[in-house]
Amino acid sequence: MEIMRGCTRGCRFCHAGMVNRPVRERTVSDIAEAIEKALENTGYEEIALLSLSSSDYTQIGKLVDEITSRLSGKNLTISLPSLRIESFSVDLMEKLKGVRQGGFTLAPEAATDRMRNTINKPIQADQLLSTAREIYSRGWSTLKLYFMIGQPGETMEDVQAIADLSKKVVVEGRKAIGKRANLHVGVSTFVPKPHTPFQWASLDPLLTVLEKQNLLKDQLRGPGMKMTWSNPRETILEAALSRGDRNLAKVIETAWRNGAKFDAWQDQFNYNIWMDAFDAHGITPDFYGSRKREIDEVFPWDHIHTGVTRKYLLREYDRSQRNELTDDCRDGCHACGILSEFSDLRQAHPGQLWLCPEVN
Ligand code: SF4
Questions:
Q1: Which of 15, 30, 43, 134 suits a disulfide with 90, CB 3.0-4.6 Å?
Q2: CATH code, domain with 97
Q3: Contact at 8 Å (CB) between 356 and 333?
Q4: Which residue has the CA at smallest separation from atom 5 of ligand 1?
Q5: How far is CA 91 from CA 26, 87, 135, 176, in A?
Q6: What is the pLDDT of residues 230-286, one digit of tens each?
Q7: What is the span of the domain harbouring residue 64?
Q8: Is the pTM of this model over 0.90?
């Protein structure tokens, strides 16, 4: 169940955070009623309260209270993904203990301050460790952390920091609950996406991705530790399709004619079929993925207008290269373009459910 749409945090790699602006919240009563109706009509036993950043939903405490009181005793699993790394999130998850509970997942994405500034997702390592300690000591034995390698400007020291931080989290778990503490580390690879500040950035070359993954695979193992990672060949294809142009239509058709189907299912993914299809049309995936982009390059998606301006995206890209943070735009509007685009709608819907400033 989607509880709000949009996000004010401005992580620079995040496509959804850019194209789903502005932030709009559904009311607690609308959400609770929709959940009850959905359960009645479907018989589902699991509910996830979805958004890009659930702790930012302004009524999150009230929502969780309402849902737990309406649904307790029904033997449902309720999960609350996309929580911020802070003890308030642990409090929220604890409130769900009356119902069957899902796992605890946090997404620091990067492990050094420099990388966190580059991607605009500032989190203090101390805070992550103290939140992890709380999670373990309040009854969860498994914590899942998501990191992303290959962000622009990343060095091997930044990757090593992911391993170091993960090991420290396990130590916190051990201190809290001994050998029962488990840590799953999910490591994805950054794919530059259109309509984001990183639309000008390059995908890491295959060998670099493998080197980074190998470093982590070597270190993130042992009792209580499990690592999962994305298939770098799938990443190459994803990167080409993400920033592809009309020439890729021929490649997609050829790959399909040669048997490519259900590629998102790992057992069905056939890299060679795709590479042969690229070859057949004299195109390389690197042209779309790893090639360096000039600032004034005209992109195949430039005619699609999301409301956020290219000027804003470029300003954010420049700031990323200087490792400068941009504050959450609830603390001050950064003029991303949404308000001028949707000023009529904003005027028609005044008040707090839409989190951008009012327009007169
Ligand atoms: S208009 Fe301002 S407050 Fe609204 S999403 Fe854009 S930057 Fe954030």
A1: 134
A2: 3.30.750.210
A3: yes
A4: 22
A5: 22, 6, 9, 17
A6: 999 999 999 999 999 999 999 999 999 999 999 989 899 999 999 999 999 999 999
A7: 1-102
A8: yes
